[in-house]
Amino acid sequence: MTHRRPKPRRTPAKKKAHTIAQLLQHADAANTKEEAISFMSQAYRYAPTNLQVIDTFAEYLLEYGESEQAQQMLEQSIQLAPDQNAVKYSNLAECLLQNFGSSALEDALANYRKAEEMLQLEIQATTAGTDARPLSALYTELFSLYMAWVESLLTHGFGDGDEHMPASVQPDHAVFGECERLLSLARGIPHANPESPDLLMRHATIAVLRGRPDEAAAALRGPVSRWSTDTQDIEALPSPGLQFQAARLLLQLDCYDLAIARLRFLLNYDKKDAALWYYLALAHHRAGDGPEADAASCITRCLRILGRSSEVHPLENEIADLAGVLHVPLEVATQGREEPEEEEEDLDLEDEDEDDED
User: Residue 346 has what pLDDT?
Assistant: First the structure.
């Protein structure tokens, strides 16, 4: 009689670890917020004290706007291991500001400082050969920390109690000095990219707020002009949101050629974004060196998109004002509501020579 060798039984610990690894992979590959949160919730139920699970779950929650639950996760992680993973302190700072606004700024800044201290210690340990993490990863985390820190100061650092900068800010406000100190530290990180879009945008924004528009334009024009307008290069470009910020700032700085080129390129991401069409219309109108029909075509497209939406657009008043200036009747929006959606593609910009944009 032949005896089969019994298969080894997997211990509960190994089975659980394998399951957690799979769930983390599934969350990373998820196509929707619901899927990602579901996989992370399962992983957390399997291992409620696993630091990787807790910190990763918190990152997903923060990314998807669930900042209150993310804060709870991060506070649990800090309680379990206060000296591991500097990024969780930076994420906690963002949670505090999202949950409590400017009133939590001091606590948020304390968390940013803690993250900076931990990263600097890790960099020293790696340089001395006592830490296995690659320096490049640590430098990247430190750079991202400084960018988040600056953004938080610009958003919440003026004591106005909400998420908007006051209408009038003195150019010598202490927040600007601190922001420029942090940007200088970011530039000094080894191998930091001097044309990093995040760095450029924050530098230019601060220059504008401090009354130095020429400096802001000089900082943006060269790098942005080198951003590709080839759709095959989309993956290598800054995020659409950051490109949009750059285009709006260029428009504010009267750099109309670059603003128009970037806004038109952004339509490759979403041709039904009313804000893009509004700012494109505004840029053509202000440039004044092309046919006004270009601006009218853009604002017409914008109105038709609004006509198909039941929600109030945050730029609705500005859009109506520009339509009036361009003699485009607001009834166009009603027509857009009544027309079949596929007809929207029939309305497009007039073909333009590249010379008109330069």
Answer: 41
